[in-house]
Amino acid sequence: MLCRRPARKLSQRANAKGLERHVPVDKNMKPVLDAAEVNALLAKVFPQLNESAHEYQAIEVFPGGCTVRLNATERHLRPGNTVSGTALFALADIGGYVCVLSHAGPDALSVTTNLSINFMRKAEAGPIDGHCRILKLGKSLMVFDIDMTAGPHGQTIAHAVGTYSIPPKR
Amino acid sequence: MLCRRPARKLSQRANAKGLERHVPVDKNMKPVLDAAEVNALLAKVFPQLNESAHEYQAIEVFPGGCTVRLNATERHLRPGNTVSGTALFALADIGGYVCVLSHAGPDALSVTTNLSINFMRKAEAGPIDGHCRILKLGKSLMVFDIDMTAGPHGQTIAHAVGTYSIPPKR
Amino acid sequence: MLCRRPARKLSQRANAKGLERHVPVDKNMKPVLDAAEVNALLAKVFPQLNESAHEYQAIEVFPGGCTVRLNATERHLRPGNTVSGTALFALADIGGYVCVLSHAGPDALSVTTNLSINFMRKAEAGPIDGHCRILKLGKSLMVFDIDMTAGPHGQTIAHAVGTYSIPPKR
Amino acid sequence: MLCRRPARKLSQRANAKGLERHVPVDKNMKPVLDAAEVNALLAKVFPQLNESAHEYQAIEVFPGGCTVRLNATERHLRPGNTVSGTALFALADIGGYVCVLSHAGPDALSVTTNLSINFMRKAEAGPIDGHCRILKLGKSLMVFDIDMTAGPHGQTIAHAVGTYSIPPKR
């Protein structure tokens, strides 16, 4: 079973510390795949994503967004013993991919056209949650952002905004 | 089934349009200036911002963020009769400036080091609100993001993430 | 007459200081408008760009790119007496617009979808040259970057990368 | 006629493919490590970078920039059999890291603060070269960009701009 700790609980913990984290939602969007279906699709079409363990996974899909998780281990670290920018980029990129697969349909050939990422705090090995929000879902482009949070206080360690190009329906 | 408690439970206070917009807040941050004080400072140190009317202004300052507004007129439009990217960039940039002035103190010499902006929807002349959130407030850098919303449905028309460099205390 | 000091001369001066500035070029691209034609088009469809003087202008169009210029005055300054981020954003955005108008044809309704800008050095009032390069010219998207240089040493004061969405041919 | 001496005169040394790629250089910068020294440092402080083969490596260090290479294999691909965005992000990030290590000195604790990447064309498995240029080398921040080229025509497949934070000298 993949997602024992729902993202909301994180939010509740965060609130206790004086942090608030609401994921804005466009309820008019209708996901067509849930998290389990997306994870199954990822395992099939993108085997390189998780070479061994379930490092990157969809935790939840909801109208207008999703939550993804990186279970960061030793191999995701960089000098300074913090999770590398590349591992966090991968989490952001997979967050957008889960958004597009779940909301625009399971066409694996959607591709990132650009992504801008800011690194705010260091993160140790452990779970890092990515809270994704679809900012625009058009016919050919989807724009999303993602807050990546980690640690006992659920602080934002990185943030990214990206665009996926959606291929024409075949 | 993977996740029982979806993040959108948070959406129960959603507005009539089915869109929800919560600005995450770090309640541990303490603003040192309010919106009126920031507007007075802007008028004094940055007269170029509002050559005539009160086009760009701080609406609210709260712990961890602020709201700014552009009252877009004919002169902010570009071909297609939509608010220009430059006018929206200016709103994003002033949103970050209000964040840094209100939270790091009234040093006018803080400067933007980078800003990444996505344009999602067209906006007509009229008020455009910028919902700003401080993602990190360090000694020398502040990172923020801003959702720019407009129109009867309060849709996000643009989104930006930027960094301000804060000069050393003198 | 608009461009007395061609961009290359800047480059030659720069070389004397130990700086080199080559604009990479894809010679397979064929511009369909030259700088004078683009300036005439801008004056017609985008009167807001230059409310009074010729502040923003195309200086040169060449296969795969263009040079644009901002003649920055007092009104483009921000606190610290340096050219504002907004004025430089406008130069970057107009650089992309000149690229798309000159290379994809004079459809004024091409719009910026995103732009990421870095500010490296302060610039005083005076001419700021934007050296633009088309990184990709597709059917529906054009990606470009721009080096903005100023001052006696022709140093890069800002750099941006952006994407324009090109409307379908009508 | 507007401009007599077009910037593309610089293109006369263009290559056989009609594409030209000059990396602008600030000759006043003095690298303190060469490519072999940087590769040795990377192997020591960042073993996660190349788990098995020499996938990511510095090819050349020159004043004001460097060239890095990704030897992309099957494991760097994503759906569509193209090199993944994450593998290209890693190349861009390592390009900036090589710039900062070689020019600001071998302090492994410099970290990326932000990076914005655009993906322009698909790339197959094989070598991908990253041409890096230092846009600014300050005391605490370094800004760089990178053109990533691949394939028989050496086309730009991706482009990134990023910032590294340099820790204070100890």
Summary tags:
homotetramer, 170 residues, alpha+beta, Thiol Ester Dehydrase, Chain A, 6-stranded antiparallel beta sheet, globular, disordered N terminus
Order of helices and strands of chain A: HHEEEEHEEEE
**Largest beta sheet: strand ordering of chain A:** 1-2-6-7-8-5
- Sequence stretches where pLDDT stays below 50 over 5 or more residues of chain A: 1-23
Largest sheet entry of chain A: 6 strands, antiparallel
Cα radius of gyration of chain A in angstroms: 15 Å
Structural class of chain A: alpha+beta
Architecture of chain A, according to CATH? Roll
**Arithmetic mean pLDDT of chain A:** 85
Give me the number of helical elements of chain A: 3
| Most extensive chain-chain interface | A-B, 43 and 36 residues
Task: Characterize the overall form of chain A.
Answer: globular
Number of strands of chain A: 8
Query: Roughly how many Å apart are the termini of chain A?
Result: 34 Å
Strand fraction band of chain A? 35-45%
What is the name of the CATH class of chain A? Answer: Alpha Beta
Percent of residues in helices of chain A: 10-25%
